[in-house]
Amino acid sequence: MNTQLKQDVIEWDVANWSHLIKLWQPVLDGLPRDSKVLAIGERNGGLSLWMALQGFQVVCTDREGPTEQARELHKKYGVGLKITYRDFDLVNTEDFDTTYDIIIMKSVLGGVKEQYGNATSRTDATRQKAIDNIYKLLSPKGIFLSADNLQGNMFLRLIKRLKNKQSGWHYFSIQELNDLCKQFSSVSVQSFGIIPTKFSVPILNKAAYIINSFLWQLIPSNSAYIAFITARK
């Protein structure tokens, strides 16, 4: 995947979050291209682009529908005919008439709320309801792929507290994600990212990624700040 495409798919902290491509591509390679895909929380349509470029038919969603930027992005890459767009509220949906072979999302689960605009409704029960709905929406033997924010190492936790980011998002432990997905027949939660790759100078991001790849093999998995879930119904 070239640099520009990777940027368009991942959007932020690209070097670290793009680790999902390495982990999920082998899973996707084994699936028929007529598999139906539901991409949740897409906003600007990055994951939908990635899936459509591989030949999948994708339903690209966000709570109030994807942005116009998503449509323009998909048109730019010539995959507009592979993608449909709709509003979708993961927590409150009752639309289980259609099932999907693949459900994919990135940095969504930590922000789900029962009531939009009410931060107090971002609860354990709400997150479990979201996962339960995903399970219902999957076809038999369907696959759920999600990249989520972990609590990370002590330094990153301190930064989050200083910036008051803890109050605006839920950061998971690996055990918590495993518990949320326990109804699936198999669950793999892998992690990556010790140092964020958000530098304005590309070579520094490459250096940080190399350091991450080295540290990832030496320190506990919960020290990373990104989790990658692969769950099979």
Tell me what the structure shows.
With about 230 residues, this protein is α/β, with parallel strands linked by helices. It has one domain (about 5-230): Rossmann fold. It is built from nine helices and seven strands. A seven-stranded mixed β-sheet has the order 3-2-1-4-5-7-6, sandwiched between helices. The mean pLDDT is about 90.
Key phrases:
single chain, 233 residues, alpha/beta, 21% strand, globular
Q: TL;DR of this structure?
A:
With 233 residues, the protein is an alpha/beta fold.
How are the SSEs ordered, and which strands pair?
Blueprint: H1 3-10, H2 14-17, H3 19-29, E1 36-40, H4 46-53, E2 57-62, H5 68-76, E3 83-87, E4 100-106, H6 124-137, E5 138-149, H7 154-162, H8 174-180, E6 186-192, H9 202-215, E7 226-232
Parallel strand pairs: 1-2, 1-4, 2-3, 4-5
Antiparallel strand pairs: 5-7, 6-7
Distance between the termini: 29 Å
Strand order of the largest sheet: 3-2-1-4-5-7-6
Give the count of structural domains: 1
CATH level 1 name: Alpha Beta
Biggest sheet, in brief? 7 strands, mixed
User: Which percent range fits the helix content?
Assistant: 25-40%
CATH superfamily: Vaccinia Virus protein VP39
Task: Return the CATH topology.
Answer: Rossmann fold
Architecture in CATH?
Answer: 3-Layer(aba) Sandwich
Order of helices and strands: HHHEHEHEEHEHHEHE
Q: How many beta-strand elements?
A: 7
Rg over CA atoms, rounded to whole Å, is 17 Å
Strand content: 15-25%
Shape: globular
SS-derived structural category: alpha/beta
Mean pLDDT: 91
What is the subunit organization of this protein?
single chain
